[in-house]
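Troubleshooting entry. The earlier prediction with manganese (II) ion gave an output that would not parse, so I re-checked the input for stray whitespace and re-submitted. Clean input:
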Amino acid sequence: MEALSLPKSWNVDQILDDLDQHGFTVIDHAYPAEYVQQLMQECTENLNRFRDAAIQNGVISKIRSDHILWINEDLEIAQQHIQALQQLVQIFNATFYLGIKEIEAHFACYNAGEFYALHRDNPQGKNGRMISTVYYLHNEWQDNWGGKLHLQDKNNVWHTLEPKPNRIALFQSDLLHEVLEAKHQRLSITAWLRSDTPIL
Ligand code: OGA
Ligand code: MN
């Protein structure tokens, strides 16, 4: 994959139109098979470094039970995904004047039985998260494996999105959503497009 061009399968007009009309969009077949394989390998090689997402700054929360690994320069394959998102940021800033400056991202692993209860990534504009993106990187996802993303759009209509492999769900960070309990291991990268510098 070329580092600095938008992947061919990303339909920018559709993405902008969906975001404008509904506050969310879905990009399917996001990356070429070779890249998907490399990313999956990088994720699974590092699974032993994932930490309990419910514990942040020593505070334990009951609303989520997944495990995460924050992405920095040492995760070179995942960085290419962030670079692709960076291309979208330029378009979003030019179109919606979002003032996005930063991307923060982590891998997430939901093992069987794990979930993320109803929440907003940016309640009441408290942090700089403008747009949330979730890329699903497991090889397979069957309909009865749970783990669906349940999302309320900007018109208050609820949608159920399957975590299909090689799909990106992209939504306004102020929208209400949840991850239903997964029945199989569910692997993803969550990335937030932020209008400020993240404080981790
Ligand atoms: C999150 C989140 C949704 C998903 O990481 O904040 O809501 O489908 N993820 O994994
Ligand atoms: Mn979320």
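This one parsed fine. The chain has a mean pLDDT of 94.
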